Amino acid sequence: MDEEYDVIVLGxxxxxxxxxxxxxxxxxxxxxxDRNDYYGGESSSLNLTQLWKRFRGSDTPQExxxxxxxxxxxxxxxxxxxxxxxxxxxxxxxxxxxLNFKAxxxxxVYKKGKIYKVPATDVEALKSPLMGLFxxxxxxxxxxxxxxxxxxxxxxxxxxxxxxxxxxxxxxxxGLEDDTIDFIxxxxxxxxDDDYLDxxxxxxxxxxxxxxxxxxxxxxxxxYIYPLYGLGELPQAFARLSAVYGGxxxxxxxxxxxxxxxxxxxxxxxxxxxxxxxxxVVCDPSYLSDKVKKVGKVTRAVCIMSHPIPDTNDxxxxxxxxxxxxxxxxxxxxxxxxxxxxxxxxKGKYIAFVxxxxxxxxxxxxxxxxxxxxxxxxxxxxxxxxxxxxxxxxEEDNCFISATYDATTHFESTVxxxxxxxxxxxxxxxxxxxxxxxxxxxxxN
Length: 445
Fold this sequence. Notes:
Protein name: FAD/NAD(P)-binding domain superfamily
Strand content: 15-25%
Function: Regulates the GDP/GTP exchange reaction of most RAB proteins by inhibiting the dissociation of GDP from them, and the subsequent binding of GTP.
GO molecular function: GTPase activator activity; Rab GDP-dissociation inhibitor activity
Helix content: 25-40%
InterPro entries: GDP_dissociation_inhibitor (IPR018203)
Keywords: GTPase activation
Mean pLDDT: 91
C-alpha cells in the first residue's frame, strides 16, 4: 500500500464510486478503500438476513417471507430520472454495459387523503381528476408554455425573462389554484418545500421539462427507471469502471485515518499500520467527522408486503409524493415501492419505503400518513440517520467530502453534488452532452 496516488477515495457509497470512476477515466491514479467488507456504504442493498441482523439483532427472518438471497432492499431508495443527470453520467462513462434497467410503472401524488396519477403534459392535464374543468384548461395552457419553452428561442419566452421572474409570478400569470401548484411544484418539478416559489423560474421550468421528457423516453407510466437487482448494483458498476481504468480497490480496511501535514493539507491515509500517500482525499462524512456539520435527519420506514399499493393500478413499482402542505409539514414525504418485477424480492412480494426529513422524534407517528396508504404490511422496520454537509475549505486541506443522501426518492440532487465535487477536484466541468437516445437501449421496456 506504500505508494503515492493522485486521489484516495474513502467509502464505497454511490457518490464516492461515481467520482472514483470519473477520476480514473480522467487518467488519475486512484486508490479506493472502505472500512466495510461490502460495496455501497450507506447506499447498499441488503438481503433478508442482513436486513434482520441490522434491525432485529440476531433474529432470523420468518420462512414465509421467502428466500433471503432473493431480497435486495435498498438502504437509500431512489428512482432514476430517465432523462436526468445520472443516466447522462452512466452513458458518458459507458457504465450502462454493467447494468440492466426497467421502467418504473407509476408516478402519483397525494391530495386530500387520496392518490392520483401525476399529469405531466397538456393532454394528460385534460384527463386528470386532480382538477376541475376550468382549472384543467388553465393547467393545459401552462403545460403548453413549458413544453414549448426553449432557452435559446426568445419567441418561446412570451416576454418573460425566467432568470428574473419568480416561479410564483409565472404561476399567477396562468391563474393556477393552490392544489395545482402543489402537484406541479412537488410531483413534477420535485421541489421538497415551497422555497422555490420565490426563486427565479428558470430552474422550476427546466425541472418540469425534464420530467415530461423523461416520461416520453420509455412510454411508460412514469419518468423513472430502476436497475434490476436494486441500487446496490450502481456503486459496483462504477467500481468496475474505475478498476478497468487502473483504479485500485481495498475493502475491509479498518480505521482508515486521513493524515495531514503541518499546514493542514491531506497527504495520505493510514490503515492497519500502512500509509498510502496522496494529493487529495475524497470521502463520505463518516471518515472526516470533524469537517462536517449536522443539518437534519432523515426518517424512513421499510415495509415488506404481499400486494401492490392500493389505487396504483396494481403497479409493481411506483413513486408517490405527499406534498408538505397536504400534511401540514415543512417538507414533503415520499413513498417508493418496488417488487419482484425488478428482482428485489421473491415472487409475490413488494418492498415499500416511506421517507421524510424528520420534523419530530417519533418516526412511527410522523410517517403514518404514508404508511396508511400501503394497506396490510407483513413486516415493518424504522430507521433514521443524521444528514451532514461539509464545512471545510477544500483548497486549504485537499479534502472533498460528499453530503449525506437526502429523503427524496430520485437521484437528481445526488448527482448535482457529485458533479460539483468533480469540478472542485479537477477544476473542470464534466461535459454530459451525450446522445440520450442511447439511454433507451440501456433500459428494458
